[in-house]
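3.2 Worked example (two chains)
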Amino acid sequence: GDQGFQNIYWNKYQFGFDGYDDDYYPRLVNWQDLKRNKTINPFLRPDLPERWSYYHPFGMKPWMCPKDTYCEKTEEDARRYIWPQMQDLWWSEFDRMTTAWPWLLEEPWRDYCIKPMPDDVEYKISRDEFWKQKKQMQQESEANG
């Protein structure tokens, strides 16, 4: 769809993304519900569905943070927007693309693809730390089962 339409729709209606339903349609969460429900967070995001057509990142785009870091302007935005599995997929596709077209990593093109960490980022967690915490949460959940 049209990028402008998507941005207006998502921002106007204040939805957060909470994975996919069995029929591969996005499962949306009203932003007010998300603010009240502190259990919705990136650690609980589902794995990627078998089939998907596109990924439109909301909040900070994957290329706006270092490759080894998940980041968002605020912790509340992180709960709303960060979906690590999709961001990892984005970076793997980026790596494939830059292997095919290495000139993308040269100046001036590099500046369009890879950005330094913005100064106004409050929430950041390294990929390694994120997956370590997620694994620990899963093990605790299974133990309490």
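3.2.1 Second chain
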Amino acid sequence: EGPRPSGLAELDFASLHDHALREWMNFFGMKPASRSFMVSRLCEVARFLVEGAAVAPKPAKRKRAAKAKAKAVALSKPELTRLLLQAVRADTELHERVLTQDPIEFSELLARLPELEPGIGKLRPDSLREFLEEQGIQFCNPWRSK
């Protein structure tokens, strides 16, 4: 007999009321946001806790990323958000740190995310900061020596 799934795996977050979703977000130390964001983030956390590892999405087709890089056109905000989410989820260690709300150094993310997803291109710090704040990802700046 294999291991039984926890009650968390059987919970259908999409059927919960907004108040219950906000309570679950607070329980896991995350900032409540839109209903769709809360449902998706709570489902990710539940999968992570049940399976014991970050669940990476299907790999993206590289042709589209290569075309976007070749054109060197500025990405729209939704497209940049999609690519940044894809990059975070593709790196198991980084995704785990995001899910466990570990603060990640801003300069590390600024250098690492474009390497993980070539379609991002040169990432502007203000775009990255906005993305991190919208997604509720904990980040920090290094201490500066005097």
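3.3 Remarks
The beta strands are 104-105, 139-140.
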